[in-house]
Amino acid sequence: METRELRYFVAVAEELHFGRAARRLGIAQPPLSRAIGQLERRLGVMLLERTSRGVVLTEAGAVLLREGLAALDAVDAAARRTQRAAAGRSSLVLVTKAGASSELLAKLLDAYAAEPGAVTVDVQLCGPGEQERLLRDGRADVALLHRPYDSTVGFDTEELATEGQVAVLPAGHPLTVEARVRTADVADLPGLPMPRWPRPDGTYAEGPGPAVRDHAQLLQLIALGRASAVLPDSVRPLLRDDLAVVPVVDAPRVTTVIAWPPHSRSLALAGLVRTATAL
């Protein structure tokens, strides 16, 4: 398969409409339809079911969409890493979710900076789920990810820390006098709905909770009495006096890992990983 064919198919599979996909790609609809038909004939499978309203992905099409996105990410990553290498920049780009593992990140940067041969580490803070995408598409060299919320499939990883989770509530809320709570206790709080985080495509699921982009926004909403949340215990240093936490006994434990592409041969990256695991 050619990269062009994959990009054509992904556009149709995401739009589920040949006309919208053609406009997105900047081409006419007939050559797009022909290209998809040729791809189906070459693979010997039906990828899309055409209807009067648009198109529907077949099971085979859903597989090619998932695999095709990964392949296109790999192609884009190869181009970006090649361009960065040609630029001669002696640095690493580390991505992490804003507000997550702040204390661990600070210790890691300080410890690595003290190592012989350390290079500059450019830290990029991003929203939930973005660090995985930036690492896959070559805009980052290394990431701090958090299982079970982030996927580490296809990366090399080292575990750095595991922690429990806490309910973050407005200070003075009746539940804050409890020694511990369960997830259901927080999910059912009147007037304090759980937040809605963005999906990978940037959209939000329907629900009563506020749509949030980062921890700073969420914590302010909680302090205002508009939301509650269950977050990793390491959020404590970020909390203001108008917030309180209670351990959540049945919440899944969160493991912070350092992750990088398995084909990386960067000595600087290897040094950063060694420093991280030593901590």
Automatic annotation (TrEMBL):
SUPFAM superfamilies, alphabetized: Periplasmic binding protein-like II, Winged helix' DNA-binding domain
Q: Report which residue ranges the record marks as coiled coil.
A: none
Q: Which GO terms describe its cellular component?
A: protein-DNA complex
- Which residue range or ranges hold the HTH lysR-type domain? 1-58
Q: Which UniProt keywords apply?
A: DNA-binding, Transcription, Transcription regulation
Any one GO molecular function term = DNA-binding transcription factor activity
Q: Decide whether keyword Membrane is in the record.
A: no
Similarity remark: Belongs to the LysR transcriptional regulatory family.
Full protein name: LysR family transcriptional regulator
Source organism per UniProt = Actinomadura decatromicini
Question: What does the record give as the organism's lineage?
Answer: Bacteria, Bacillati, Actinomycetota, Actinomycetes, Streptosporangiales
